């Protein structure tokens, strides 16, 4: 079906080009009504099957029998995807079904199809179907689709999504390919998720609940959906430095889980390392996507530099680098020129700043046509510790090309925020400081919090967007169930008075909670607001109480967080170290040509400032794209003029009788009752 649509569209473009080129003959519009946009339709038959992405066989979620199915659509077309949830009812999920988020799409005017479970829709329950249908008014480029009701993405419900330009491609290259990066766990996502809800605080644990248990590092990194668990074949070479990679006992495996045996092409003939084949002399556009759940990756093509030309679909000034640091949820389009001698070169994806013993790396081969296909590269295999991570200087060089900053030179087909004449950033009208912490809740659960609020669950068993659309004052009145952010009048004074003060206020004017709570963090915005958000990293590994200085213990460790925002692209103004101080740090903001993205990293011991235009009525989530952090509450919502949202589509999925997202405590007996042994199957 989609191929026919593509053919028809291509034919139309050719005809249009012929017409516009024959300048001598005047073009007279036909008398009929103009054609509407073409529709690109996909059916997604969602099932569970056996897969072995890294040679270890496990249950995976498939779409039409495919793992990580790729889809494409032309800018301006209607994208229509009918999702048939044919997962067995015994398949354990942390939600009551599945949904799809179109990662990186702004969804302006399509607020009901953004796919966050319980926010804009209830999940698509087992045995039912739902059709996503919206016009793709998005920048041509590289995106991906993934489940967003629970953790179904981690089990494989994710794939590349490419938006083609309606006209000629702006970039010049000979061929293109997708490099779909992920990390792979041998245990089901839900079995990994259950223990995150159990009490971290030993005093709150019982024999029945057991204790909190971290998911630990993935078992492998996959390149284009396959990898090589253990990669013992590399031992056959002369480089003994990689020997520890085969010793999985060095991997941190939580108590009670298996230390699976490593695999090799000898013991598993089906094992395959990713080979990317290129022809000497050609230039390749490589669409890199990090769809993993934990691993921040540095991707290197040995002996080759690559040139970044787009970040999160929007063009960038060309930046030539030896390796690309790509965080969860991010995409980079790079150009690679095959200008080295014909041969085999390592294609490696190592974890950036790997600190956990046993973090795996993904290794593939960049193979020139004509090279010996049975040989591995003879160079030493790249080791994580030998790959230098990007500095703030590198990531700050990702900027907008100047033709995108001026209405007179703006390339055709550029998607702009509402009311903008170019991608030059407007001045901010509001500022929000978000403090990231990892508190313990009074019930002993360990959570991630934004301004001391760990967000999960829903107020009622209905889409939040529908509740707010009908009654925008609902959250404000329901102060016991939600926390409503307000903008401080004087952020600078707050900052100078106390680095740790939370400039976020509740509806009644009282400050945000001094002690951590499990609630919902909302910030109400008015359409047209231009909002600066400064996300401040604070110490993780809290061991009790809140994050105020002197309270609690063990506050030294910090983790990087890959944040992503729905419903918008935004300008990434600055990255900084230490505590953000408005008086000194806001002068470092790049307000001339900042990158226009939908993801940003909050580095360890640092802060990141973004600016977005609230041009899209609806409820939009800002969250960490580490799936495990998202589950543990690391998210908040921007509700932009919800009264302006459209009425929901009549066929929106019915809400289940009970809404179960992130319900607890996931004790073994609860899991046994709900799903039987499959809840813990590996
Ligand atoms: Cu995080």
From TrEMBL:
Give one GO term, molecular function aspect.
oxidoreductase activity
Biological source species = Pseudococcomyxa simplex
Does the keyword Signal belong to this entry? Answer: yes
Q: Which family does it belong to?
A: Belongs to the multicopper oxidase family.
Lineage of this protein's species? Eukaryota, Viridiplantae, Chlorophyta, core chlorophytes, Trebouxiophyceae
Which residues belong to any copy of the Plastocyanin-like domain? 46-165, 176-371, 528-642
Q: What keywords sit in the KW lines?
A: Signal
Write the protein's name: Putative extracellular protein CSOL_037
| Signal sequence coordinates | 1-24
The domain of life is Eukaryota
Tagged with keyword Signal: yes
């Amino acid at each position: 079906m989609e191929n026919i649509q593509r053919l028809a569209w291509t034919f139309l473009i050719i005809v249009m080009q012929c017409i516009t080129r024959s300048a001598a003959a005047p073009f007279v519009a036909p008398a009929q009504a103009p054609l509407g946009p073409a529709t690109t339709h996909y059916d997604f038959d969602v099932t569970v099957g056996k897969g072995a992405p890294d040679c270890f066989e496990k249950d995976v979620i498939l779409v039409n029998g495919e793992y990580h199915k790729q889809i494409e659509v032309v800018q301006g077309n209607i994208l229509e995807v009918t999702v048939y949830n044919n997962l067995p009812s015994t398949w354990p999920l942390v939600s009551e079904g599945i949904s799809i988020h179109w990662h990186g799409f702004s969804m302006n005017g399509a607020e009901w199809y953004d796919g966050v479970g319980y926010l804009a829709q209830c999940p698509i329950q087992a045995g039912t179907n739902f059709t996503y249908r919206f016009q793709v008014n998005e920048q041509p480029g590289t995106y991906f689709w993934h489940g967003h009701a629970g953790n179904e993405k981690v089990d494989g419900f994710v794939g590349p999504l490419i938006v083609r330009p309606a006209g000629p491609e702006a970039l010049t290259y000979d061929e293109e390919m997708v490099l779909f990066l992920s990390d792979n766990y041998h245990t089901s996502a839900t079995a990994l998720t259950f223990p995150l809800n159990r009490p971290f605080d030993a005093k709150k644990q019982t024999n029945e609940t057991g204790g909190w248990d971290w998911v630990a590092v993935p078992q492998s990194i996959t390149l284009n959906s396959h990898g090589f668990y253990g990669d013992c074949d590399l031992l056959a070479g002369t480089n003994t430095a990689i020997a520890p990679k085969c010793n999985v006992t060095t991997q941190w495996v939580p108590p009670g889980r298996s230390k699976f045996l490593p695999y090799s092409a000898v013991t598993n003939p089906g094992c395959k390392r990713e080979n990317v084949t290129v022809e000497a002399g050609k230039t390749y556009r490589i669409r890199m996507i990090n769809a993993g759940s934990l691993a921040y990756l540095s991707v290197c093509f040995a002996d080759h530099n690559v040139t970044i030309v787009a970040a999160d679909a929007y063009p960038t000034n060309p930046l030539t680098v030896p390796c690309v640091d790509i965080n969860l949820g991010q995409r980079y389009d790079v150009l690679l020129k095959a200008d080295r001698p014909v041969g085999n070169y390592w294609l490696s994806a190592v974890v950036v700043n790997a600190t956990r013993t046993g973090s795996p790396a993904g290794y593939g081969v960049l193979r020139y046509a004509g090279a010996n296909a049975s040989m591995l590269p003879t160079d030493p295999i790249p080791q994580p510790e030998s790959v230098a991570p990007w500095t703030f200087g590198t990531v700050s060089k990702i900027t907008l090309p100047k033709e995108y900053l001026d209405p007179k030179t703006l390339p055709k087909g550029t998607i702009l925020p509402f009311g903008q004449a170019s991608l030059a950033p407007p001045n901010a009208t509001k500022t929000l400081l978000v403090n990231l912490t990892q508190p313990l809740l009074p019930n002993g659960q360990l959570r991630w919090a934004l301004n001391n609020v760990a967000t999960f669950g829903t107020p009622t068993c209905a889409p939040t967007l529908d509740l707010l659309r009908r009654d925008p004052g609902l959250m404000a009145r329901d102060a016991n169930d939600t926390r409503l952010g307000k903008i401080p009048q004087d952020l600078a004074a707050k900052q100078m008075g106390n680095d740790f003060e939370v400039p976020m206020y509740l509806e009644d004017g009282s400050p945000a909670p001094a002690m951590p709570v499990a609630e919902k963090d909302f910030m109400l915005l008015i359409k047209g607001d231009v909002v600066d958000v400064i996300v401040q990293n604070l110490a993780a590994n809290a061991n009790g109480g809140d994050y105020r200085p002197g309270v609690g213990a063990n506050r030294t460790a910090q983790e990087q967080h890959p944040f992503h925002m729905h419903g918008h692209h935004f300008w990434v103004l600055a990255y900084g170290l230490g505590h953000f101080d408005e008086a000194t740090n806001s002068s470092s903001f790049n307000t001339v040509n900042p990158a226009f993205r939908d993801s940003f990293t909050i580095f360890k011991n640092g802060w990141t400032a973004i600016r977005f235009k609230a041009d899209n009525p609806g409820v939009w989530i800002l969250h960490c794209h580490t799936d495990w952090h998202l589950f543990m509450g690391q998210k908040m919502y921007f509700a932009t003029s919800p009264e302006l949202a459209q009425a929901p589509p009549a066929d929106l999925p019915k809400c289940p009788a009970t809404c179960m997202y992130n319900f607890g405590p996931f004790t073994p007996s609860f899991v046994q009752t709900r799903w039987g042994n499959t809840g813990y199957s590996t």
